[in-house]
Design goal:
The complex is a heterodimer of chains A (302) and B (330).
Chain A lengths: L3 H8 L11 H9 L3 H19 L34 H37 L1 H16 L2 H11 L5 H11 L2 H15 L2 H8 L4 H9 L4 H24 L10 H10 L2 H4 L2 H29 L7
Helix pairs in contact in A: 1-8, 2-14, 3-4, 3-14, 4-5, 4-7, 4-8, 4-11, 4-12, 4-14, 5-8, 9-10, 11-12, 11-14, 12-14
Chain B lengths: L1 H28 L4 H6 L6 H15 L5 H13 L14 H34 L3 H15 L3 H15 L19 H38 L2 H8 L4 H37 L5 H10 L3 H29 L1 H4 L8
Helix pairs in contact in B: 1-12, 5-8, 5-10, 6-8, 7-8, 7-10, 8-10, 10-11, 10-12, 11-12
Classes of the chains: A mainly alpha (302), B mainly alpha (330).
């Protein structure tokens, strides 16, 4: 729900910093002094590390019934076992991998579509803008899972990839709107006018004049899309529209609720996956605020 | 202002048309035949099955050309007829939805409005107050990053099962019949509380940080500095900043409605709360595409109506749209 923040920033368009290369050093200077950025990035990196090397220490297959049922965490089973005796640690670290994959692919695709539509609508304006606005509205109104439902009915075996792609295809509207508004304000600036008058092609103007001035903004859009994609994936997995051939953090919660983890008090089964999602996405958001302060001098705390 | 609403209405109508068309396509795009699904439950002799197949085809309106089905769908839609449920045959989809809707309204309207009000007030209050900012900001971000169902699961487990204070399933006690008695109302509130709190908390975090980030921009704006330079009290500066910062929050509410509804759906699933979300899950699991279609259509219409209300509110709070200037950002 933090996504709106970016949109409003677009209302303060006059404050988009028009920066040049020499400022990069200044950004680094402020970046390494920004606690929000450091803490957020640190937590995210920690989980990435866990997702990368965690599975190397997993001794079992995530789906195999290997141990006693409903065991609390112990030396043998670090995160305990499920109602069926599966190893929760293995499921958790593999689920983390799936989570980052969804974030990168889903968030990346969503940002890409948002950038394309936002640039085109904002730069061209007029009827193109109106048509894209209607398209944005339709996607905004149709629930993501309406589309995934159709996919789910056709593909009995689904992977993380398909889920990520569909999340990307439906999660772009707010990014498109925010980027459109930014582009719209930059379009009438003097340097863009100058480029236009000198006969530059629209595409080149967008890539060499407008985009570089919104780089920080696009980076933050990607971070928010990344976090958003993770949350949507968790929701979809939870109602059973997620992947079928692998494990994910959302699926862990789904299975935990379905197979009575609450009634049996198997907290080790449903606490870690939700906590990891909360920590990762929350840290991404906090990192985003830090980045905002780095890029925008007015926000730095004195 | 007429131009503002004129444009809005065109956008709404085209959105509605496209959304309904996609929604119509859902059961027809599905592999397999919904009627065969239904018939597998009543095995019988081949002739009987064939007879029943024709009978059900007629009931579901699937025995005519596709373009006619499409037109009939629109006609039926304006008569408030969304077809017959396969799962709950022979109940009408509309009847099922109408039974579920009061629970959704009861849950969602207070959660959205209260969290919007409290979150914005609190976010504005916390901004630029060092100690509050350092505690509220991380907390708000963590809340808004919490998966809805996880908070629901945690609440159900801690307050429901371990502490045993609140019931964790259904909308009222299993031994009760809906009636206007105190016992029933109390049971209703008891079952409502946990889903409400878990939705409220996640929404609240989002609004609080949204407002906090927004009002900082406003407090750094020239007019705020000017006002400060004139010696205006802090509360007055904040009041002006707040009124400017609330506009993008209202736009944000419109943009976030889809996410808000999705959150409500999974929360209902966690608590088996018999709203639309619960029925969508039932429908998905039983491949009742007509019920899914009806639920989605209902959500689409509700989101559009809510969007329209937000647009009207926007005109009320933002004088620029009233004067025909380019104020509306959504």
């Amino acid at each position: 729900m933090t996504e709106q923040i970016n949109i409003e920033k677009s209302e303060r368009m006059d404050k988009v910093p028009v920066k040049k290369q020499k400022k990069v050093n200044e950004f680094i200077y402020f970046a390494i002094r920004n606690n929000k950025l450091k803490i957020g990035l640190g937590i995210v990196l920690l989980f990435i590390l866990l997702a990368l090397i965690g599975p190397l220490f997993a001794k079992y297959d995530w789906n195999a019934y290997i141990g006693p049922m409903s065991q609390p965490p112990s030396r043998e089973f670090w995160f305990g076992t499920t109602t069926f005796g599966q190893d929760v640690y293995t499921q958790f670290v593999l689920g983390l991998r799936a989570t980052f994959l969804v974030g990168i692919i889903g968030g990346g695709l969503g940002t890409l579509i948002g950038i394309i539509i936002g640039f085109v609508a904002g730069y061209r304006g007029g009827i193109v803008d109106e048509v894209l606005n209607v398209l944005t509205n339709v996607v905004l109104v149709i629930p993501t899972f309406a589309l995934l439902l159709i996919v789910a009915a056709y593909l009995k075996v689904r992977g993380i990839m398909i889920e990520s792609i569909f999340i990307g295809l439906t999660a772009w509207p707010w990014a498109a709107r925010a980027i459109r508004a930014q582009t719209f304000s930059l379009r009438s600036r003097d340097f863009v006018d100058l480029a236009r008058m000198s006969g530059m092609k629209p595409l080149k103007i967008i890539f060499t004049e407008i985009a570089p001035n919104m780089m920080s903004y696009l980076l933050m859009t990607f971070i928010l899309q990344f976090g958003g994609a993770i949350l949507i994936a968790a929701t979809l997995d939870f109602i059973g529209l997620g992947p079928t051939n692998t494990i994910s953090l959302g699926l862990m919660m789904n299975y935990a609720v379905m197979w009575g983890a609450l009634q049996f008090g198997n907290w080790w089964w449903f606490v870690p996956p939700g906590f990891a999602i909360m920590a990762i996405v929350g840290s991404l958001y906090i990192m985003n605020v830090g980045l905002d302060e780095v890029f925008n001098p007015k926000l730095r705390e004195m | 202002m007429r131009r503002y609403f004129g444009r809005k209405i065109v956008v709404y109508l085209s959105t509605f048309f496209l959304a309904v068309t996609i929604d119509w396509a859902i059961p027809r795009f599905m592999p397999g035949n919904p009627i065969l699904n239904l018939l597998t439950r009543v095995a019988g002799r081949p002739e009987t099955v064939q007879h029943m197949y024709n009978y059900y085809s007629r009931i579901f309106g699937l025995d005519i050309p596709v373009w006619k089905q499409y037109i009939n769908f629109w006609i039926a839609l304006f008569h408030g007829d969304l077809g017959t449920s396969v799962l709950m045959f022979p109940q009408k989809v509309t009847a099922i939805i109408m039974r579920a809707v009061p629970y959704d309204i009861f849950l969602l309207v207070p959660a959205i409005l209260l969290s919007f009000y409290a979150g914005n007030k609190f976010g504005a209050f916390a901004a630029r107050t060092k100690w509050l900012d350092n505690t509220v900001l991380p907390l708000g971000y963590m809340l808004t990053a919490t998966p809805y169902m996880w908070l629901g699961i945690l609440l159900a487990w801690s307050l429901g099962i371990v502490a045993g204070i609140f019931p964790i399933a259904g909308a009222y006690g299993f031994n009760l019949q809906p009636s206007l008695s105190w016992v029933f109302i109390l049971s209703l509130l008891e079952h409502w509380f946990l889903p409400f709190v878990s939705l409220f908390l996640v929404y609240f975090g989002g609004w609080a940080i949204g407002m906090r980030n927004m009002i900082i921009y406003e407090l750094e704006a020239d007019y705020s500095h000017y006002l400060e330079a004139l010696g205006a009290p802090r509360s007055l500066v904040r009041k002006y900043a707040y009124r400017n910062a609330i506009l993008p929050q209202i736009t944000g509410l419109a943009l976030q409605l889809g996410v808000v509804v999705a959150g409500a759906l999974v929360t209902e699933v966690v608590f088996s709360y018999p709203g639309i979300g619960y029925w969508i899950l039932q429908a998905i699991q039983n491949q009742d595409y007509f019920l899914i279609q009806g639920c989605f259509l209902f959500i689409i219409i509700m989101v559009l109506i809510a969007n329209f209300i937000i647009d009207i509110v926007y005109v009320i709070v933002d004088p620029r749209t009233r004067l025909g200037m380019v104020g509306g950002s959504a």
